[in-house]
Design a protein that fits this description.
Number of helices: 4
Order of helices and strands: HEEHHH
Strand content: under 5%
Structural class: mainly alpha
Largest sheet: 2 strands, parallel
Shape: globular
Helix content: 40-55%
Distance between the termini: 33 Å
């Protein structure tokens, strides 16, 4: 986050974002799905602690045994969709890989443009080789432990 040096706890950064002059607002009736590093509060949904959470824990025909596990399974599935989208955006647009020297307004414009172009590509292309590549990477990483560790490190350039 802009203005923060070094590492800061997720909850501390969120609290700051909610208390700024032009603070983060969550529309009434909507929620952000957040991980266990945050506090469950209005507009933010965390998984139940002490319950199975990761999708690989429900493979091989296993089913949730409580309402809390069912919630965590759906929460995890939804977060995976979001993480997959961000992975695909970062594969497609190298400018999103790291921070750069642009101001916050330019960052917002860059991210918006990348999302709009991504949506146009999805609308116009029946076959997207980057999605296939991402699926391959995700299959290779399946079962290798923590989902947060399954990041894409290197993308080879192509003319597609």
């Amino acid at each position: 986050m802009e203005g923060w040096e070094g590492l800061a706890a997720d909850g501390r950064i969120l609290r700051d974002a909610l208390n700024r002059r032009y603070s983060l607002k969550v529309p009434h009736g909507y929620y952000y799905l957040v991980d266990a590093g945050y506090t469950n509060c209005e507009g933010f949904l965390t998984p139940y602690r002490g319950q199975r959470y990761h999708l690989n824990e429900w493979r091989d025909g296993r089913h949730p045994v409580s309402p809390e596990e069912f919630f965590n399974m759906k929460h995890s599935a939804s977060r995976n969709v979001i993480e997959r989208f961000f992975g695909l955006l970062k594969m497609r647009w190298k400018i999103l890989w790291s921070t750069c020297c642009y101001g916050i307004d330019t960052h917002i414009d860059i991210i918006t443009a990348c999302c709009l172009l991504h949506n146009l590509i999805r609308k116009e292309m029946q076959y997207d080789p980057l999605e296939v590549a991402l699926n391959d990477v995700m299959e290779q990483n399946a079962g290798q432990g923590n989902d947060e560790e399954n990041y894409i490190d290197v993308i080879e350039p192509s003319n597609e």
